[in-house]
């Protein structure tokens, strides 16, 4: 009788990918943990660029990382209120967006990018580290759109300069698009688009033109838009069709489908995706 073949050993993967797949962090967060020496593999301190197998003993701060089979991905849209931070814990004990989110039976919520405390609007949250990593990675090329209220109206030469780019504290920054929205008196609204998400970039760009930002709200992240019916401080879950389409647009493997019924009152009442040709064309190749 022919002996059964021994199973192939698991393929080594990037360590940050394994940690993200466990649902405790995004890949970016995992990389910072590795760099800070907080991660070990089989008792040895890990290093950036290291690969491991899911059967290895991986620990963060001495606690074992449980590599569960991948959970069905969830994507929440939060209309963030002002005065909240995006950190899980704040040393100053300010309110955090995680206080508003539902509990997960496994893993934890990961934010797709961040908003500073004063900025409101669209914040994407997911339990899927690979999705968060793909959406945040510069190579994916997702832009961000903001509604901005400033004092006074921009001159044509100021708009041109903000589109060409300005040097701010040694960094070259620029908007990829600026559109006047409405306004009167001293308050005028613009919609601006950024291709990167650097710290306080919108405010710093307007400050370079000596324009003070009095309100700042993110209204779009790549193909995902903030629905007008989602009130400040509330969250909604993307429809499953939108989740599937988002994974397809990002060239990620088809996600696991949820088992059981999700509370319909918490599912978005309409699609929150818009056409995004650069992703859709890449997904067809």
Structure commentary:
The chain is α+β, with helices and mostly antiparallel strands and 285 residues long. The chain has 3 domains: 13-64, Roll (Structural Genomics Hypothetical 15.5 Kd Protein In mrcA-pckA Intergenic Region, Chain A); 75-139 and 224-254 and 267-284, Alpha-Beta Plaits (2-Layer Sandwich), CATH 3.30.70; 143-221, Pseudouridine synthase (2-Layer Sandwich). Helix content is 21%, strand content 26%. The chain has 7 helices and 17 strands. The strands form 4 sheets. Strands 7, 8, 9, 10, 13, 14, 15, 16 and 17 form a 9-stranded mixed sheet that branches. A 4-stranded antiparallel sheet has the order 3-2-5-6. A two-stranded antiparallel sheet has the order 1-4. Helix 1 (15-21) packs across helix 2 (27-35). Mean pLDDT is 88; it is low at 1-7.
Task: For the structure shown, list the relevant keywords.
3 domains; Alpha-Beta Plaits; alpha+beta; 7 helices; 285 residues; disordered N terminus; Pseudouridine synthase; 21% helix
Low-confidence stretches: 1-7
CATH fold group of the largest domain:
Alpha-Beta Plaits
Shape: globular
Number of domains: 3
Helical fraction: 10-25%
The termini sit apart by 47 Å
* Helix-strand makeup class: alpha+beta
Count of strand segments: 17
Please count the helical segments: 7
Task: Please state the average pLDDT score.
Answer: 88
CATH architecture of the largest domain: 2-Layer Sandwich
CATH class call of the largest domain:
Alpha Beta
Spell out the helices and strands N to C: EHHEEEEEEEEHEHEEEEHEEEHH
Query: What's the CATH H-level superfamily name of the largest domain?
Result: Pseudouridine synthase I, catalytic domain, N-terminal subdomain
Strand content: 25-35%
Largest sheet: 9 strands, mixed
The value of Rg in angstroms is: 21 Å
